[in-house]
Write a structure and sequence with these properties.
Blueprint lengths: L6 E8 L3 H13 L4 E5 L4 H7 L5 H8 L3 E6 L15 H12 L3 E6 L13 H4 L4 E6 L9 E3 L4 E3 L5 H14 L3 E6 L5 H17 L4 E6 H10 L6 E4 L1 H12 L9 E5 L5 E5 L16 H14 L3 H16 L13 H13 L2
Parallel strand pairs: 1-2, 1-3, 3-12, 5-10, 8-9, 8-10
Antiparallel strand pairs: 4-5, 4-11, 6-7, 11-12
């Protein structure tokens, strides 16, 4: 592979199994190019150390990096209903907002080797290859929040500009069809969403097929006919839920990577799964979604397309050769999964 300049990557191990899956990922990346890794505490670990899930120092480091690689955040240690208490997830929201990362890409492609690991029948999922494009910086997650002893309110707000830019991302990624998902029969924000998406389609992407689906119908169709979907475009809350549902098509949420991108800021790349505190420290965590998130970083964040394809192919071939971690019905440890992928890479 051609030599590339050293890239500066900020790494955020986070919580739970995060450090266990990030360390082998860095070892794999070292075999694919020249990188400088700079580690910072984040999430619950940062709350313990600094009283906040995201420090200004960490945010500044991320802004100055070529890319940010995040493992996992959260855990029962920091669960609370106290609105004044810091939560690990606030760090993730703050990082997305601070870097202007408005587009979350979650590819869902069940691998033939894992068809039988999915809770859905092989004939239902076979050939599925879809992309969830989720808006990240608007909606109910970032709206005004109020709490009284008798009630609570979360405001959902979207602007025309926010919908336009995420719509362009989705149409630009589509091979044939964009399925725009909303709740326009009930929500005013969804009516705005549908109108803007329709206009962007007509004015800028008339050659891409467009359909508008309600979120509840989409949730049903994802498990009934997943091959129908090419690109699913949706807002923040709906995208959060639908992408986790789509993850189960692959057989395990431990297989799904994601990329969060903005206009010019460094991208954030992370597996979709959580911190799995129940298996932390046992060496049993599945590192494959972390490896695939690193592949998305190589592709979308660093323009290292050949290296990205090599890493994705190595994961595929390792699974074809029989690699199975516990979440996939096997017994392979984190270390064994790492060795299997590295062996495939070295065979290129």
């Amino acid at each position: 592979m051609p030599a590339v300049p050293a890239r500066r990557i900020v790494t955020l191990p986070g919580d739970g199994i995060g450090p266990e899956i990030l360390a082998p990922t860095l070892d794999v990346l070292r075999g694919l190019g020249e990188f400088v890794f700079e580690e910072h505490v984040f999430g619950g670990a940062s709350i313990d150390a600094h009283g906040t899930a995201l420090t200004e120092e960490t945010l500044a480091a991320c802004r100055g990096a070529d890319a940010v690689l995040l493992a996992a955040v959260g855990g029962p240690k920091w669960d609370t209903t106290d609105p004044a208490a810091p939560r690990p997830e606030q760090g993730l929201l703050g990082l997305r907002k601070g870097l202007g990362l408005y587009a979350n890409l979650r590819p869902v492609r069940p691998l033939p080797a894992l068809y039988d690991s999915s809770p859905l029948r092989r004939d239902v999922i076979e050939g599925t290859d879809l992309l969830v494009v989720r808006e990240l910086t608007g909606g109910i997650y970032f709206g005004e929040k109020r709490r009284t002893p008798e009630s609570a309110t979360d405001v959902c707000t979207y602007t025309v500009a926010e919908v336009e830019r995420i719509a362009r991302t989705a149409f630009g990624a589509a091979r044939s069809r964009v399925s725009s998902v909303d709740k326009a029969n009930v929500l005013e924000t969804s009516r705005l969403w549908r109108e803007v998406v329709q206009r962007v389609h007509a004015d800028e992407f008339p050659n891409v097929e467009i359909e508008h689906l309600l979120v509840d119908n989409t949730a049903m169709q994802l498990v009934a006919a997943p091959r129908h979907f090419d690109v699913i475009l949706t807002e923040n809350l709906f995208g959060d839920i639908l992408s986790d549902e789509a993850a189960m098509l692959t057989g395990s949420i431990g297989m799904l990577p994601s990329a969060s991108l903005g206009e010019s800021a460094p991208g954030l790349f992370e597996p979709v799964h959580g911190s799995a505190p129940d298996i932390a420290g046992q060496g049993r965590a599945n590192p494959l979604a972390m490896f695939l998130s690193a592949a998305l970083m190589l592709h979308h964040g660093l323009g290292m397309h050949e290296e990205a394809a090599a890493l994705e192919s190595a994961v595929d071939r390792a699974l074809d050769a029989g690699l199975r971690t516990a979440d996939l019905g096997g017994t392979a440890t984190t270390a064994e999964a790492t060795r299997a992928v590295r062996s495939q890479l070295q065979g290129d």
